[in-house]
Structures are given as structure tokens and as C-alpha cells.
Design a protein that fits this description.
- By secondary structure, this protein is an alpha/beta fold.
- It has two domains: about 110 residues, Tetrapyrrole methylase, N-terminal domain (Cobalt-precorrin-4 Transmethylase, domain 1, 3-Layer(aba) Sandwich), CATH 3.40.1010; about 150 residues, Methyltransferase, Cobalt-precorrin-4 Transmethylase, Domain 2, CATH 3.30.950.
- About 30% of the residues lie in helices and about 20% in strands.
- It is built from nine helices and eleven strands.
- A six-stranded mixed sheet has the order 6-7-10-8-9-11. A five-stranded parallel sheet has the order 3-2-4-1-5, sandwiched between helices.
- α3 packs parallel to α4, α7 runs antiparallel to α8 and α7 packs across α9.
- The longest helix has 13 residues.
- It is elongated.
- The structure holds S-adenosylmethionine (SAM).
- S-adenosylmethionine binds next to β7 and β10.
């Protein structure tokens, strides 16, 4: 029977795939992949021989209709991304929405995604969280940060390594220096590390460092009953815009959520 399967794949460690995901990838008529060469490595690792077709951010608007036609003819199709769960900061949403419009069954398998291990590793509250994915680079970034500064839930962001230092600097300005945060790098890979501290500590830690690998940043939400922050204004801190808005100054003053750690917690794990 026609069905679209959304199949999560490992975010680093090839062992992080479910038995059902392997079976579905073997059984479907076609596997749609973001990068067919990358997915071929995974399929080969598990001895899976199946047809691959490319479906990525640059062709999905076109490819979606061909896929829908195949599904209407009765095919079973699996969608995978390069890593993690399709649809999570990856192509997927468009195809799922079109399937729903056409009454085609969709089933998303539970499986790997980078945000969950980063959130749980952070030691910050996991009961309520906001997944932001990648922040806009320019237009809308400041507005988004001002809005997020008011959120009480834990915040989860994806970020590229070369933007990490700048982003930590902005988080310190917009969310206040004493919020607790965690930076997870290379989750499930041999050089995995999870670094916790206040935003100010983490900003200092990553400043002027050349960072490699994949990154998730987790930041504690706004404290419900914040105590005033008596710390003096940081000297030399670059504001993201030339004239800081009163709102931003206010958020800097009221977001003292914890006393400084004085010590950054650095957990490295060797995956064997
Ligand atoms: N679909 C994926 C998921 O379910 O997590 C996300 C894909 S998005 C294009 C890639 C981003 O996810 C990276 O820039 C990074 O922020 C995060 N990411 C993916 N793998 C990671 C890993 N092993 N460690 C840390 N972050 C990772």
C-alpha cells in the first residue's frame, strides 16, 4: 500500500539506527535522499541494496510532485536526510504536507535527532523547551532574539562552528551574562564534547577559537523571579546594532538567573 516513511538516520555514530529503520530502507520501492552518495555509505554499511533518488532543499519544490505521482501509483517511499530526522532543519515538511493533501499515508519512525541528546546532556530543564533550529543570519535575527529573551522555556539552537563565537556574544547581550547554557559538539562522534557554563563563561571560552564540527546550543529560559543583576556593563562588548534598544538594556539588567559558576564544566566522551 502506498506510504511515505520518514526515516531518521544516525547523526554521527552509525550504530544509532533502529532495526525498523533498516527493514524499511530495505523494503520500500524507493529511498529519497538529500545526498545520495552519503546515504549510499549508510546503506552499504547495513548491506541494503535499494534504489536512491535525490530530494534536497534545492529540488524539493520540483521533486515533490514526481514523488506524489509515484505514491499515487501505489509505491512505498522512504525519505532520509544526511543525518537525523528529515523535516528537522532539513527537507521533509513540504513532502509530508503534500501527502496529507492527497490522503497519502505518512509514517515518521522515531529515531536520531541532534536536539534531544543536546537538551538532555545540558542539565537544563527538559520539561518545556523551544526548538529554534538555525537563527536567521541577518534579517529578523535581532527581533527573534528579543522575543526569545522573554521565553521561560529552555531554548535549543543549531549553529555552524564558524558562527558559534559571534552567536555566544550576542546571546550574552540579549539574554544576559548569567544564564546557564550548554554547547554540545560532535554528538555521538569520537570527539563529542558537552560544555556547560554561564553565557558569559561560554562566550569567553569560545572567543577567538577555531571550532570544528557540528554544534547545538542550549540556553536556560528567562527566570520567573529574577534578581537584579548588579554587574557593571561589560566593557568592549559589541552590541549587534549600533544603538542598543531600551528593551535590550532592560533584558540585560533583569536576566541574572544564577550566580556565576566561576568554572566551566567540560565533559568529553570517547565513543568506543
Ligand atoms: N535533521 C537533523 C536533526 O534531526 O538533528 C538536523 C540537520 S541540520 C541541517 C544540521 C545541524 O544539526 C548541524 O549544523 C548541527 O547544528 C546539528 N547537528 C547534527 N548532527 C550533530 C551532531 N552530531 N552533533 C551536534 N550537532 C549536530
Amino acid at each position: 500500500m502506498a506510504k511515505l516513511y520518514i526515516v531518521p538516520t544516525p547523526i554521527g555514530n552509525l550504530e544509532d539506527i533502529t532495526l525498523r529503520a533498516i527493514r524499511i530502507l530495505k523494503e520500500v520501492d524507493l529511498v529519497l535522499a538529500e545526498d545520495t552518495r552519503k546515504t549510499q555509505i549508510l546503506l552499504k554499511h547495513y548491506g541494503i541494496e535499494n534504489k536512491l533518488s535525490s530530494h534536497h532543499a534545492f529540488n524539493e519544490h520540483k521533486s515533490v510532485y514526481t514523488v506524489i505521482e509515484k505514491l499515487k501509483e501505489g509505491s512505498t517511499i522512504a525519505l532520509v536526510s544526511d543525518a537525523g530526522t528529515p523535516g528537522i532543519s532539513d527537507p521533509g515538511f513540504l513532502l509530508v504536507r503534500e501527502c496529507m493533501k492527497e490522503n497519502i499515508l505518512v509514517e515518521c519512525l522515531p529515531g536520531p535527532t541532534a536536539l534531544i541528546p543536546a537538551l538532555v546532556n545540558s542539565g537544563l530543564p527538559c520539561d518545556r523547551f523551544i526548538f529554534e533550529g538555525f537563527l536567521p543570519h541577518k534579517k529578523g535575527r535581532q527581533t527573534r532574539l528579543l522575543k526569545l529573551a522573554e521565553e521561560e522555556s529552555t531554548l535549543v539552537f543549531y549553529e555552524s562552528p564558524h558562527r558559534l563565537a559571534k552567536t555566544m556574544e550576542q546571546f550574552t547581550v540579549f539574554f544576559g551574562p548569567y544564564r546557564l547554557a550548554s554547547v554540545s559538539r560532535e554528538l555521538s562522534k569520537i570527539h563529542e564534547e558537552n560544555i556547560q557554563g554561564t553565557l558569559e563563561e561560554l562566550e569567553k571560552h569560545f572567543k577567538d577559537k577555531s571550532i570544528k564540527g557540528e554544534i547545538v546550543i542550549v540556553v536556560s529560559g528567562k527566570c520567573k523571579n529574577p534578581t537584579p543583576d548588579p554587574s557593571p556593563k561589560r566593557e568592549g562588548s559589541k552590541n549587534p546594532s549600533p544603538s542598543p534598544s531600551p528593551k535590550r538594556e532592560e533584558s540585560r539588567a533583569t536576566h541574572r538567573v544564577a550566580p556565576p559558576h566561576n568554572e566551566i564544566v567540560h565533559r568529553k566522551s570517547k565513543i568506543v
